[in-house]
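re: that chain from earlier
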Amino acid sequence: MRTHVGEVMALFREYGELSRTDVIDLSGLSRSTVNQRLTSLHEFGLIREIGGAESTGGRPSSRFSLNRGRAVLLTADIGATGFVAAICDLGGTPLAHRRRTIDVWDGPEPVLSAVDACFTELLASPEAEGLPVWGVGIGVPGPVEFAAGRVVNPPIMTGWDGFDIAGWFSHHGAAVVVENDANSRAVAEARPRRHDNLISLKVGTGIGSGLVFNGQIIRGSEGAAGDIGHTRAAVADSADPLPCRCGNVGCVEAYAGGWAIIRDLALLGVHAADVGEVVALVRQGNLDAVRLVRQAGRVLGDAVADLVSILNPESIIVSGRLSDSDEVLLSGVRERVYQRSQPLATRNLTISVSQLGEFAGVMGLALITGDRIFGSERIEELFPETADRPA
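^ sequence. v structure.
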């Protein structure tokens, strides 16, 4: 019974607006069961009636849509040097947001305290309108044990290993989801566009990669799937490998991460305080910055080329602050991917910059948090009365 409520709710989250007939056709449930589930969801305020569908001669069929404003979700996309916190509706749309500069190496307490301070501000904003908080989603730049809500052996997050991030936000009295930042971006890119096979590259101060295949996040057994930033760079085999922030040498990030480009620019006498200034130099036509960013694209292309041959994605979408370099970065990625991957795997492959900008992470986190809340087991916690309704 509860599963049926979750299944019907999932349809509205995916399609937004449906008639009774649509729900019957998509779910395969009987008309009586669908009517009961629609009544339950309507009573709980999760869907709202929006009028009749186009008539085919008989009585017009009622149409319903997801009530995005029934509650809100708090989300924070944490990177190496900053984060975006947002309050989102149940459809994943950010209603208000805050940006903050932080240093992830300061450890979990100061960073998460800054996030929670932003959440307090957002909940006091007009956009919150006193709505209940049903979920909290936190994205971090490292491997995550998803079920436990903890970071696991992160390469660059000193002091975060095993820290109970989910527990930190438990005072909100809502479900808490902790996810790798690149995975959340991959969901934000894939789900609204119904892209079932996608690689999302996050390129900023550091480098991450999220994989969505057959519509599902590929996390791996330890949460480390897709972490190309700390695999060995192809260029490292032809020269003395450069040291990486993770303590290893020859990592992709040591050649293509934003911090590595800033390092190389400094050796050439060009100052850039952060990745945003690197992008500004590229846009101004600084030859050293253009050359280094294009070379970073080639290193990324080398790193992802084998994934393309093995997994055969339909698209690679690049986000993160360095992606604002647009074609300067993408040209290097395309060069190596098309050169090194199997021709069949690249025949219809698209490689592009995300159109979601800085909101990609928080939007993906809202969608993943919604999955947790409205799953067949969780939905009974919100609405235990569904257990007592007849099937």
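The longest helix spans residues 287-311.
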